[in-house]
Design brief:
about 280 residues, eleven-stranded mixed beta sheet
């Protein structure tokens, strides 16, 4: 997976100003790092890094929740406008030395919708989504490949997604838990629907873990791969994991994959291709 090309940012933490290189393909709407906790749908909490009007991300905008060495929380509980893409946890600061702060998005209600090719949780830094209600949809309606979600995108990225309660997550394209970095997906309830393939540990440098328990429902429309080129672990103690295609465990040479099944139901309609470890009981 090639890195997405991002506009280069320089954050001045003393005055929370932001300088942007050109050209800019779409408006980059950036959370104001002077606000430690706030409401996503409050326009005054955002900075338009592209020089346009101050607003909540909408239309072709990129919604960017950047990080520094402090942690911040953004709350979403009512339906706002759809926008192109989300990136939580970027930039990293000094290359290969991520900032220590974590940016957290809490989704408790409403519909959170993006229309572009890829949303990222834990881009080059640390990002978390806690979803206990509402719907998060990556619909990919502005691209032909479908909307995707990557948790732990780059080698320094650390991404976490916690799905519980009545939360509903759906992607028209693939999902990656551990793209080239470290990703963890913990689902104790709610539903996660993947439009194509679910990868847990995609790139050679990646580490991905999916924890499914309780009443969680995971539906994968194509294949599920635990350890694609990297290290993948799937722990299932409850819930339902329904796969239309195949379940691959340690799919390619050099990868490692472990599936621990101690409860719930696993239904891989295309069968299981196991080159790693499958533990049941």
């Amino acid at each position: 997976m090639k890195k997405r090309i991002w506009t280069i940012f320089f954050l001045s933490l003393s005055c929370f100003s932001l300088c942007v290189s050109t050209p800019v393909r779409a408006d980059d709407i950036v959370w104001n790092l002077g606000i430690s906790s706030g409401d996503w749908n409050n326009a005054s909490s955002w900075i338009n890094a592209s020089g346009g009007s101050q607003r909540v991300p909408a239309g072709s905008d990129h919604g960017l929740l950047l990080t520094d060495n402090s942690s911040r929380t953004v709350n979403y509980n009512s339906t706002g406008p759809a926008f192109e893409l989300l990136n939580i946890g970027a930039p990293s600061g000094i290359p290969d030395s991520p900032y220590s702060g974590t940016m957290t998005l809490n989704i408790t209600g409403g519909v959170f919708r993006t229309t572009g090719a890829q949303d990222t949780v834990g881009g080059t830094g640390r990002g978390v989504v806690n979803q206990t209600g509402g719907s998060y949809i990556t619909d990919g309606s502005t691209v032909s490949s479908g909307g995707t979600l990557v948790i732990g995108s780059e080698t320094t990225g650390i991404g976490t997604y916690n799905l519980s309660g009545t939360g509903s997550l759906s992607s028209t394209g693939f999902q990656m838990v551990g793209g080239n970095g470290t990703g963890t997906f913990t689902q104790s309830a709610g539903s996660n629907t993947v439009g194509t393939t679910l990868y847990v540990g995609w790139g050679a440098s990646s580490s991905g873990t999916y924890n499914l328990s309780g009443t969680g429902s995971l539906v994968v429309s194509l294949n599920e791969t635990v350890g694609n080129n990297g290290a993948g672990v799937f722990n299932q103690s409850g819930g339902a994991n329904t796969i239309s295609g195949k379940l691959y465990i340690a799919r390619w040479a050099g990868s490692s994959g472990v599936y621990n099944l101690s409860g719930g139901t696993l239904d891989a309609n295309g069968g299981i291709v196991n080159n790693g470890t499958f533990i049941q009981g």
